[in-house]
Amino acid sequence: MATQSLYRRYRPRRFSEVRGQDHVVKALRNSVAEGREGQAYLFSGPRGTGKTTSARILAKVLNCTNVQEGEPCCECESCLSVERGTSYDVHELDAASNNGVDAMRDLIDKASLGTPGRHKVYILDEVHMLTKPAEAALLKTLEEPPPHVVFVLATTDPQKMSDTIRSRTQHLQFHLLPADTLQQHVRWVADDAGLVVSDAAIEQVLAQGGGSARDTLSALELVANTGGEGAETVPLGEFVESMIERDAGRALTMVAGAIGLGRDPRTLTEELIGYLRNGFLSIMAPDLVQLPSLNVSTLSDQAQRLGAAGLVRGIEQLGEALTEMRHAPDPRVLLDVAIVMLTSDAVASGDAGAALGALTARVAKLEKQIAEGVSAVGAGSAVASAAAPGAATTAAPADAESPTDPKTGRAQLGGRARRSAAPASEPAASERAASEPAASERAASEPAASEPAAPEPAAPEPAAPQPSVEPALVSTEPAPAAQSVELEPAPAPATPIPEPAAVA
Hints:
Elements: H1 6-9, H2 22-33, E1 40-44, H3 51-63, H4 77-84, E2 90-94, H5 101-111, E3 120-125, H6 132-143, E4 149-155, H7 163-166, E5 170-173, H8 179-193, H9 199-209, H10 213-225, H11 236-245, H12 248-260, H13 265-284, H14 293-306, H15 308-324, H16 331-343, H17 356-372, H18 377-395, H19 415-420, H20 422-444, H21 471-475, H22 479-487, H23 500-503
Parallel strand pairs: 1-4, 1-5, 2-3, 3-4
């Protein structure tokens, strides 16, 4: 007769023996103790976390003849028959192999029949494997079952179930066991079973179990059969150290040693991703780390030195390599390339901005220089912007139309600036125009003795040059000046020229 496996020998028989699922135990125990058990339950969670075990305990307590505070007695015939698998009140169905509509119709027909106990419990395992017609056949009975029938649906993937099924059940979610809780359970099982297992082997068992109670006990049984020392472990911390020190050779040596111990490249990549994930969680949410407390401190120190950005980059890079390994002829090549890209400064991991550490250092250096006043770029730009308006004002009149000076008849420079300042000079022009009549009256009243000295025969209009004297100057005279002379003639001089009649 074969020896019973550890996970079967130490399967919980009561709610109080279920480890790490206190929220589920409390809900089920209170509902039974207060007589408010539901008609349909949905248990979801990772494998080996106690879904089917809790369903069997619920089936026992619903038909137990001596219920004590929501716990089965595990001594009556009903409880013992459920444990042996011979009870007429409990029916387990594997939905993975009975997923057709015919199996559901047969179940529905039997559900309406009577039962020896108080309740008839149907446990449907892996219910997400049911086909759509089977779900449709189960839906009506699940919504309005007979009063003595209770459905317990168990699945590892509730997202694949239809919303109409989930809405008609009480959904209880199971989760992976904490590392410390699982470690206590493993040590208790080893002591109770008389197994001699070293501390290093227990750590290896916990790492292999990954929070699953069933997987952990299976790994414990294997370690006990190999002498209690366990196989040589892979130092996953070496990989993180190589990422911190940018030492690709160190990482490749670690991978070569792990593969030499018999590790598959895909399995090793999964372990590396899990280790980096625990490091990331040690920074963001330490309570979620699936490692014993003794190892969390070392992992947290490495994670702090590498940084959250480096951990995320490692998870992404190794995750992409793991995806590509499905169709690769040699998965180890992809793992080596991913490791080199993560641990080498010379190779970027996907794009120019992947070297987050170097980029952060450069940004910090620039911020320090700005704070110390090393860079004068801001001051230079401020000076240039202050000098720009003056330069623009000086260069603008070169392209503008220049007015004529009334005294000389020549074009004036800075015409646009003068034109913009015209409102300010209007009072001066009006005063000059008012003073000109007074000057004319004074000249008319002066004696004739001063008249010969007043006129100057060489003062005809200066705007009319002699073409025969300097033809080159006439040809080079700018056209705008000539137009301005014609459009704006010079006003009369302050000393008027006497009329010819007065001179005679």
